[in-house]
Amino acid sequence: MKKAVHFGAGNIGRGFIGEILSKNGFEIYFVDTNKAIIDELNTRHSYEIGIASSSPEKIFVSGLFGINNGENPEDVIEAIAQADIVTTAIGPNILPYIAELVAKGIQKRKEENKQVQIDIIACENMIGGSEFLEKKVAEYLSDSDKVYLANYIGFPNAAVDRIVPGQKHEDLLYVEVEPFCEWVIDESQIKNKSFKLEGVHYANNLEPFIERKLFSVNSGHATVAYSSAYKGYKTILEGLQHKEILSALKGVQKETRALLLAKWPQYFTEEDLMSYHQMIISRFANPKIIDEVTRVARTPIRKLGYDERFIRPIRELNERGLSYQNHLDIVGKIFAYQDENDSQSVQLQEKLSTMDLQRLIEEVTGLSNKKIILEIELVIKKYKNDSK
């Protein structure tokens, strides 16, 4: 049986990547520091996924093991050495923390003279996630290790899309997910061509698909979340019942379509994107998915990053002379967002009260374009004044 090592035994890891790997006949070794989940996986070796739809169904996933990388790092290294594929779903900020373990797994494969090629795929909400992980892994490799990596280890980028809301169940491993899912892998970067995963789309140029997903789903979800928080709604579903919030989402989508059509006319048509965006609205409005605003809106500083879901579209729309006012408006709401249980929200509000505003914008967004910085300053002041 083929073996998969998957970093991240959380809801997305179990409710999406684990399901696909299991359906493809893999024995899965989940790697995580959550002792309760890892122990439960090793007790049961299986779990159930619930599909939240008008016709609910259950999916049984089996052939599972857990490894606590905090307690048993050597077991992780050995698992990577024996694996046929390695995947992650841990969050972009956590990728650097697994890099050394991944590097040691690669070194062990080299020591054992394994000449079977393997791919390590970061399934994260970021552009170039696998390439980013590869750079972090390379920091722990010698020159001869890097030669081995170049020959035998692939880091193909991927785009993943499935809404998995925050949830708690009596069954620690049970997870509910939306029916829709999409996993796209850059075929041109794959090293191991001996198999393809069923249920995964392979593309020769992943970038347009990653941008379509990031700028449509992630930007759209965040648009609803921050707009809902500003209006005092607690869930995404509640917020979408408000005409002004739905209008904000459609406004961001319209600007996103303009950008994607300008950048990738050979991949998308306006009709395709209109249909895609309408489907996203229906996914967000799924009455069986109760998604907390605080979950979608968490880590506001990260979401304001230079290559993230709002600042990058703003930069690229500006370069092309296209409108980005709806994106800009959400940036103002992100700066106004307050959640005392979110450390980044607390940190951002502290900085707003103590730092020069333009310097703060530059620090958080990485922007140097004075025109855009001034526009962001104005929209921040607008929402600060509105909240008084």
TrEMBL record:
The family database entries (PROSITE patterns) matched by this protein are listed as: MANNITOL_DHGENASE
GO CC, alphabetical: cytosol
**First-level EC class:** oxidoreductase
Domain Mannitol dehydrogenase N-terminal stretches: 3-199
Task: Offer one example of a GO biological process linked to this entry.
Answer: mannitol catabolic process
The question of whether 4Fe-4S is a record keyword is answered with no
Please give the superkingdom of this protein's source: Bacteria
Entry keywords, A to Z: NAD, Oxidoreductase
Question: Which positions in this protein are listed as binding NAD(+)?
Answer: A4, V5, H6, F7, G8, A9, G10, N11, I12, G13, R14, G15
In short, the EC number is 1.1.1.17
Q: Which InterPro entries match?
A: 6-PGluconate_DH-like_C_sf, 6PGD_dom2, Mannitol_1_phos_5_DH, Mannitol_DH, Mannitol_DH_C, Mannitol_DH_CS, Mannitol_DH_N, NAD(P)-bd_dom_sf
The family database entries (Gene3D superfamilies) matched by this protein are listed as: N-(1-d-carboxylethyl)-l-norvaline Dehydrogenase, domain 2, NAD(P)-binding Rossmann-like Domain
Q: Which reaction does it catalyse?
A: D-mannitol 1-phosphate + NAD(+) = beta-D-fructose 6-phosphate + NADH + H(+)
Drop me one GO molecular function for this one.
mannitol-1-phosphate 5-dehydrogenase activity
Q: Which family does it belong to?
A: Belongs to the mannitol dehydrogenase family.
NCBIfam families, from UniProt?
A: PRK02318.1-3, PRK02318.2-5
Q: What is this protein called?
A: Mannitol-1-phosphate 5-dehydrogenase
Look up and give the organism this protein is from: Lactococcus lactis subsp. cremoris (Streptococcus cremoris)
Q: What is the lineage of its organism?
A: Bacteria, Bacillati, Bacillota, Bacilli, Lactobacillales
